[in-house]
Write a structure and sequence with these properties.
Number of helices: 10
Radius of gyration: 48 Å
Shape: rod-shaped
CATH architecture of the largest domain: 2-Layer Sandwich
Largest sheet: 5 strands, antiparallel
Structural class: alpha+beta
Strand content: 15-25%
Number of strands: 12
Strand order of the largest sheet: 2-1-5-4-3
Length: about 475
């Protein structure tokens, strides 16, 4: 943000300087040229007034000689011609360009000046007695080099360039100051947010710097973080209490039923078996509830997970279970992923063990849905610019639209033996890792679960993902 603000202010400052300083410099340069030409014309007129006496009586003229010396000091090249075009006095050797300018001066009867590449040429007619007659009695040709003019214009441009540079530097310093004034509190707030996301619930943002709006935002963030810490700690305390208070009685009840079943009459064996099955189902239900609650409160450090390796490993691990039910498990991964780790293999940023837990729940649900009739489950991986997509598709009975709309709710199960928590756990784990999950119908019948995770680029530079 700092760089963008600096660039924006520098662009605006440069536009203002270009709109104001450049026309001003051009106008000042034109003024310097006009002043330089006027000075040369003034010198030519002065010499013409002095040369009038010389042209009238052809006698020695000390003032004209002094004017020639002054012209030499100014590095001027000077000619004084009589009415017949003969040289009466000379200083240096003017270039040939003066001939055309002299013709213009004779035609107009006044001063004629012209700027060439490296000098200014001035021709001034000399009139006898200061009165304009039919023709002038002589001409004064003055050529002055443009070196002083060019130096003055160059110094002018250098001065304006230095002034513009100072203005740009001042604008940059001001932009950096205000950008940091705004961005530093935002950066600290961003860091605190990431630390909260990583599970450091005691982190708080600083509220003593930055604009008032950011101070209020930091104070509100701290209030939210405090309430979140209280809720999470309370939630975890409830989990610990539930784990202790429910599991221990269930275990004791199961042991008592086992002892009673061992000593019971054969006619009561079925009743005890049913009671033991209900106890086992209740234990699974408690375990599922605890797993769902843990998934909702996950704040673990993210890691870059190789999706292809994880999918292949879990499919291989569940294949014996699938074989026992006549279910074929297939893993379809991108061909370019190849074997071994490479930059082309899709990576996702997830909590440690989360992807394995997600796949275990989905494969367990799919195998359970297919039952003992057999079928197939296909787990595929696809990569896109938005991230990575994992699809788990089975060819079982599937779900109705109403069942799919309620599938992620707790205790919503289409199976009599299930707890209705598998897809709820999947949904919580996927959402806690920044992904999305949806249910579709498999072409030909069955259920397809589509998981979408952002790529690891989303977390680059955040300190959340580790390779």
């Amino acid at each position: 943000m700092t760089l963008r603000i600096v660039l924006a202010l520098l662009t605006l400052t440069a536009a203002v300087l270009a709109a104001a300083a450049v026309p001003l410099a051009l106008q000042a340069a034109d003024h310097e040229r006009d002043a330089f030409v006027n000075a040369a014309e003034g010198t030519a007129r002065s010499i013409a007034a002095i040369a009038e006496a010389k042209l009238a009586d052809h006698a020695a003229d000390p003032p004209l000689t002094s004017a020639m010396f002054r012209a030499a000091r100014e590095q001027d090249e000077l000619l004084v011609l009589n009415a017949k075009g003969r040289v009466v006095a000379a200083q240096g050797t003017p270039k040939d360009e003066w001939g055309r300018v002299a013709a213009e001066a004779e035609e107009s009867g006044g001063t004629s000046a012209e700027l060439t590449k490296d000098r200014v040429v001035v021709v001034e007619p000399v009139w006898s007695g200061g009165r304009i007659q039919s023709a002038p009695v002589g001409l004064v040709i003055l050529e002055r080099p443009l070196d002083p003019l060019n130096q003055n214009i160059e110094e002018l441009w250098l001065y304006l360039a230095a002034l513009s540079g100072a203005a740009m530097a001042a604008a940059a310093l001001i932009a950096v100051y205000f950008a940091r004034w705004v961005s530093k509190p935002l950066a600290r707030l961003d860091t605190a947010t990431r630390q909260i996301a990583d599970g450091e619930l005691t982190v708080r943002a600083r509220t003593g710097s930055g604009p008032p709006e950011l101070r209020r935002l930091a104070a509100t963030f701290n209030m939210m973080a405090g309430r979140l810490e209280t809720l999470v700690h309370g939630h975890r305390a409830v989990l610990a209490d539930v784990s202790h208070q429910l599991r221990t009685p269930l275990t004791a009840l199961r042991l008592r039923l086992d002892l009673l079943a061992a000593d019971s009459a054969p006619k009561d064996a079925d009743e005890f078996a049913g009671a033991q099955e209900e106890i086992a189902r209740l234990s699974r239900l408690v375990d599922g509830l605890l797993a769902t609650a843990r998934a909702e409160s996950m704040t673990e450090q993210l890691e870059n997970i190789d999706v292809v390796a994880a999918v292949s490993e879990r499919v291989a691990a569940w294949q014996p279970v699938g074989d026992a039910h006549g279910v074929k498990l297939v893993a379809e991964t991108p061909e370019e992923a190849g074997s071994g780790r490479s930059p082309d293999r899709p990576l996702v940023a997830l909590g440690s063990g989360h992807l394995e837990q997600i796949l275990d729940n989905l494969l367990d649900n799919a195998i359970d849905a297919l039952g003992d009739e057999g079928g197939s489950v296909v787990v595929s991986v696809a990569r896109s610019a938005a991230g990575t997509t994992i699809t788990v598709a089975d060819d079982g009975p599937g779900m109705t639209p109403q069942e799919r709309s309620r599938a992620f709710l707790r205790f919503s199960s289409g199976s009599a033996s299930g707890t209705g928590l598998g897809l709820a756990i999947v949904h919580r784990l996927v959402a806690s890792n920044g992904g999305t999950v949806r249910l579709d119908t498999t072409p030909g019948g069955g259920l397809t679960v589509v998981l979408q995770f952002p790529g690891t680029a989303l977390y680059e530079g955040s300190g959340q993902a580790t390779s």
